[in-house]
Amino acid sequence: MEYQKFIPEGWKNIYEEISLSEIKEAIINGNVLEGKAYKCDENYNVHVKLNDNIDGIIPRNEIDYLGIDEDGNIKTSICKNKINNYIQFKPKNINKDSTVILSRKEVCLDALNWVSRELEPGTILDGIVKNIRPYGVFVEIGGGVVGLIHIQDISISRIKNPKERFFIGQKIKTVVKSIDKENSRIILSYKELLGNWEDNIKFFEEKTIVKGIVKEYDKYNNGIFIELKPNLVGLAEYKAGYEYGQVVNVFIKKIIKDKKKIKLLIV
Known about the structure:
mainly beta, CATH 2.40.50.140, 3 domains, 15 strands, 12% helix, elongated
């Protein structure tokens, strides 16, 4: 099931001017708009260009709903991190100098409310990769709300670092694994969207040569695990001298469907 009430910030990745009438309508109705941040001032307020004649300002205390970032650090530099990035907000009022006061925090809180009240495990969402750590990937799923994909939920095939699969700014599909409503934490998964064993084996036939990626040696040195697809791994006969991540040609000796096993030979 796919359900995307809030889109990730910057999903469209295009600059669109916001007219004065749109701003006034948004103030009345609480509409969510998006613009590109262009400056962080000395007071850590974010400045957004709404159109050629009108600027918006997000006060420091209206930038985010939390005071920590994905790494658990106090967000002293959150203002600067938004510069040249698209950012969502709700216009609150128009000052006498035509500057519009904006709130991103309200969008984040609305999105969190959506997550806690409406999202369910198994829901498929669009997301943008925001941060990559050795233990997982932080993905924004809408309205500034960020969820975590643990490294073990990236693919069935084991990886050493999430950077093998993702890059910052990458647009992906992800699925909700669990929601901790009390602590506003969303755990996501990616491997469920890569197809199961039966889906992926359809692309391969016995007695053919294909490319694979060396993953790791069997702990008893009985063979080498070779990734054919992110959710499909076979076991090749043992050969010394191969390194993790190396691309090799393999001969598919046998596909044992009832045991979900693939016997390979590095050629």
